[in-house]
Design brief:
The complex is a heterodimer of chains A (342) and B (522). With 342 residues, chain A is an all-alpha fold. Chain A has a domain at 94-304: MetI-like fold. Chain A has helices at residues 2-36, 41-46, 52-62, 68-81, 94-129, 134-148, 151-165, 177-182, 190-196, 200-237, 240-247, 252-282, 284-289, 295-304, 308-336. Chain B is α+β, with helices and mostly antiparallel strands and 522 residues long. Chain B contains 16 helices and 21 strands. In chain B, the strands form five sheets. Chain B has a seven-stranded mixed sheet, sandwiched between helices. Chain B has a six-stranded mixed sheet with strand order 14-18-13-17-15-16. The longest helix of chain B has 24 residues, at 2-25. Classes of the chains: A mainly alpha (342), B alpha+beta (522). At the A-B interface, helix 2, helix 3, helix 7, helix 8 and helix 10 of A face helix 1, strand 8, helix 5, helix 12 and strand 17 of B.
């Protein structure tokens, strides 16, 4: 037992230690790519309006012509100390972007993930349980179609139907303009903020704005979960313990949920966890479609403006978030699945 | 049964949310105006602002010494009572008495001097301090008087003073601006018609009527929300659904066309001074002598069908442009129309090329960018290629690249012919001529005409409008003859507004100042 505990500790330490070079490589790549790409924020903003000489003077003032190693050193120092700087194009701190836009992305990701699980797991279980029946075919077809449809296309259709044609739901933003201004935001998670402050009209506004983007993104992710749950259900349904449970006269519903699905859940947790990590970055298109003020949409904007500081800062946080989630999943797996070797 | 009840409860909850939400996500009432835009501001500190979206808010929150009144094209006093040249290089302004910043601090000449001094000192990479290169010093001999000492005579200086970059900020008081760095945008304080109530980059700016504003024309509304959108299609949906009252900058021509029949939405258009033009690099363009090169440029000017571009590509949201100085500005003169006619004349173009001994078809490598001048640029240059190729006189190869690369390559002798656009720094013909035709132009295309340079220096130095009129007529005439740049179109300012909104039409003029204070609802 103690040998197993020590082994687990070694595994976890190794996993955490490996995360450091992973993040460092990511940060270095982002830094280099931003420097290799042509242009800088001054060029992007004022090119075609002032002379190249003026642009060179302004770029010098902003420090873009400093030696690249010096810039790299400052960047790493900032990343380590948590001072990721101030954006060049609109003078915002990276911390402000993470808090305000990151919370928007996280709120959307959590809602979308909840929808993905709520839709994906029941359909996956049903498809696995009733293999090769219309339920299975329908479930698989739904999974494939919903996963293959581009999120901006699904989103746009949803906007046209529920926003423009029916007028039921708002099609853009995280909340209405007046609520945005008046809502007190202690946590920057608007659902929580509106609940904590007891602002019910704001709460309803937040929920209504969340429905379409969360549904669009959630259904997309559910396509993966459906296939994953189905495949694992098919395997576990063939297990001896399932046969044994049936032989003991346990009700089929209980056999499927308690015996087959529980065992099918381990790989699902792994992949679902990784899906959540990619959701943080992958929500960019959804954010663009629904004008959701998330960190992905901001990243695109800053990329177009060649804002080194903003892009580096946002990608740094993305990278750390994805690595942390991956490590956490490994740790959870190591605890819950005794077959994991370390 | 339980499940059915569950669905019913969920449905009722969504319906209840929808009803409750209507109250809070709607467009608001009374004196609240909601504008949607795809333009993102850079800085609300005038010293860091040199872009339209920042200017829009700076004009609302601060005051300048001079401003361009709605519908006008000449500077008039705003925070100043009067301004005038006392000699060729001295410009003196007397301030209005009793002006206050929104925090109650008095506005006097030391604030004005401070504003100009810090602008030059900070020299923000995102600001417009380069427009003050002709300013030698600023002095404040008494609280009501400011004196600007210029290095050389400059008739455009009053226009420069109208730019939002040179708005007046507080030098002291509880919200004094730092002398050597930019004030954060969230802490903007001025003496204008509004106060900045909130700014969330990428999401929203909120302006509230300034009760301490003492000017003659206070805001006609109480509050303005500016909502930022990532895409023009999202902006279009928002105005269609009534989430915003005004959708302005930038809806695509296609979006505007589809909104024309939309219920509750009106399209409002007014004069704009945004232009698009084609540039020739005189060193790289086809032609074995200066005469041949000029003939090629003239033949292109004779062949392009500007009206077809305006109609087919831009659905009538732009108008043909026949001078680098757009219509609506003082001294604008359609020199290209005089020189080459309003419609394309292929026979004349052929003759021009033949007389210069240019072999046809002339190969032209024309560059354009898909990521800076709007989504219709591709169609515009496809149309230009079609027109030039169809004449049989040219063989056009179109090439494109992203703006970040384009904006360097175009001005460093990489592209023989290329697309460009221009927004005014200040609404004077000088900004549309000296910028392109001077030997020191940012275009860096090798155009060097001593007569042109002499005329440009002359118009800049003269405050006599009859002298300037004569100079600009000559400048535009030579510009059309030499044609180093060929004007293509002039944009209209176009907005989609909900029923009940008025005042937008009044603010659409060549100055490009979006005057929120003129807009009313209901």
């Amino acid at each position: 037992m103690s040998r197993q505990g020590s082994s687990l500790r070694t595994y976890l330490l190794t996993r955490v230690a490996l995360a450091v070079p992973t993040v460092l490589i990511l940060l270095t790549m982002v830094f280099l790519l931003m420097r290799v790409a042509p242009g800088n924020p001054i060029q992007a903003a004022l090119g075609g309006h002032v002379s190249q000489k003026q642009i060179a003077i302004r770029s010098h003032r902003a420090g873009y012509d400093r030696p690249i190693l010096e810039q790299y050193g400052d960047y790493l120092k900032g990343a380590v100390t948590g001072h990721l700087g101030t954006t060049l194009t609109d003078h915002r701190t990276i911390g402000n972007i993470i808090v305000e836009n990151g919370s928007a992305t996280l709120e959307l990701a959590i809602a979308a993930f909840a929808i993905a699980l709520a839709v994906g797991i029941p359909i996956g279980i049903s498809a696995g349980r009733w293999r090769d029946t219309p339920v299975d075919i329908g479930g698989r077809l739904f999974g494939i179609v919903i996963y293959a449809a581009p999120v901006f296309f699904t989103g746009f259709l949803a906007q046209l139907l529920f926003g423009t044609a029916l007028g039921w739901l708002p099609t853009s933003g995280r909340v209405g303009p007046i609520t945005e201004f008046e809502l007190s935001k202690p946590t920057h998670f608007y659902l929580i903020d509106s609940l904590v402050t007891g602002n019910w009209s704001a709460f309803s506004d937040v929920v209504l704005h969340l429905i379409l983007p969360a549904l669009t993104l959630g259904l997309l992710i559910s396509g993966v979960i459906i296939r994953l749950v189905r495949v694992n259900m098919l395997q576990t349904m063939k297990g001896d313990y399932v046969e044994a449970a049936r032989a003991r006269g346990i009700r089929e519903r209980r056999v499927v949920i308690h015996h087959a699905f529980r065992n099918a859940l381990v790989p699902v947790v792994t992949v679902a966890g990784l899906q959540f990590a990619t959701l943080l970055g992958g929500a960019i298109l959804t954010e663009q479609t629904f004008n959701w003020p998330g960190i992905g949409a901001e990243l695109v904007r800053y990329l177009n403006n060649r804002d080194y500081i903003a892009v580096q800062g946002i990608v740094t946080v993305f990278a750390i978030a994805v690595v942390v989630v991956s490590v956490l999943i490994d740790i959870i797996n190591a605890f819950v699945d005794p077959r994991v070797r370390y | 049964m339980g499940r059915i009840r569950g669905f019913a409860v969920a449905g009722a909850a969504v319906a209840a949310l929808a009803v409750a939400g209507c109250g809070s996500s709607g467009t608001g009432g009374g004196g609240t105006i909601i504008r949607g835009t795809t333009d993102q501001p850079v800085s609300y500190d005038p010293a860091g602002a040199y872009d339209l979206p920042s200017y829009d808010v700076v004009y609302a929150v601060y005051q300048n010494l001079l401003t361009i009144p709605a519908g006008g094209n000449k500077p008039v006093p705003e925070a100043a009572q009067s301004c005038d040249f006392t000699d060729k290089t001295t410009y003196k302004c007397t301030l209005q008495s009793g002006d206050k910043f929104s925090d109650g601090t008095s506005l006097d000449s030391k604030d004005v001097k401070f504003s100009f001094d810090r602008n030059v000192k900070i020299a923000s990479p995102t600001g417009a301090s380069s427009l003050l290169t002709n300013l030698k010093s600023t002095s404040a001999p008494n609280p009501q008087t400011v004196v600007f000492n210029l290095k050389a005579p400059d008739a455009t200086f009053p226009f420069v003073l109208t730019a939002a970059s040179f708005a007046i900020v507080p030098a002291d008081g509880p919200n004094a601006y730092p002398a050597d760095k930019l004030q954060p945008s969230t802490k903007a304080v001025g003496s204008g018609r509004y106060t900045l109530a909130s700014f969330k980059p990428g999401q929203q700016t909120v302006l509230e009527k300034n009760p301490k504003y003492s000017g003659a024309d206070p805001a006609k509304n109480d509050r303005v929300f500016i909502q930022y959108f990532n895409t023009s299609s999202a902006l279009k949906l928002a105005v269609q659904q009534g989430d915003v009252d005004i959708a302005y900058r930038s809806l695509t021509p296609t979006d505007l066309k589809s909104l024309q029949g939309a219920s509750g939405v009106n399209i409002v258009a007014g004069t704009g001074t945004e232009i698009r033009y084609l540039v020739f690099n005189l060193g790289l363009q086809p032609g074995s002598s200066d005469a041949q090169k000029m003939a090629v440029r003239q033949a292109v000017a004779q062949t392009i069908d500007r009206q077809a571009i305006a109609n087919r590509v831009y659905e009538g949201t732009v108008t043909p442009l026949y001078s680098m100085v757009p219509k609506g500005l003082q001294y604008a003169d359609e020199a290209f129309k005089t020189q080459y006619g309003a419609s394309p004349d292929v026979a004349a173009a052929k003759k021009t090329l033949q007389q210069a001994g240019v072999k046809t078809p002339v190969p032209l490598e024309v560059w354009w960018t898909p990521s800076h001048y709007g989504p219709s640029s591709g169609d515009e240059y496809a149309e230009i290629k079609h027109e030039l190729d169809a004449s049989g006189l040219f063989n056009v190869t179109l090439k494109s690249t992203e703006w970040n690369q384009y904006s360097t390559a175009a001005f460093t002798n990489k592209y023989p012919e290329f697309q460009l656009g221009w927004f005014p720094d200040y609404p004077d013909a000088d900004d549309y001529t000296a910028s392109f035709y001077a030997k020191t132009s940012f275009l860096n295309i090798g155009y060097d005409n001593p007569t042109m340079d002499k005329l440009l220096a002359q118009e800049k130095a003269s405050t006599d409008s009859s002298v300037r009129a004569k100079d600009f007529a000559q400048i535009q005439k030579i510009g059309a003859q030499d044609a180093p740049t060929i004007p293509i179109w002039q944009g209209k300012q176009v907005a989609a507004v909900r029923n009940g909104i008025s005042g937008v039409q009044e603010t659409f003029d060549p100055s490009f100042i979006f005057r929120y204070w003129l807009i009313t609802k209901g």
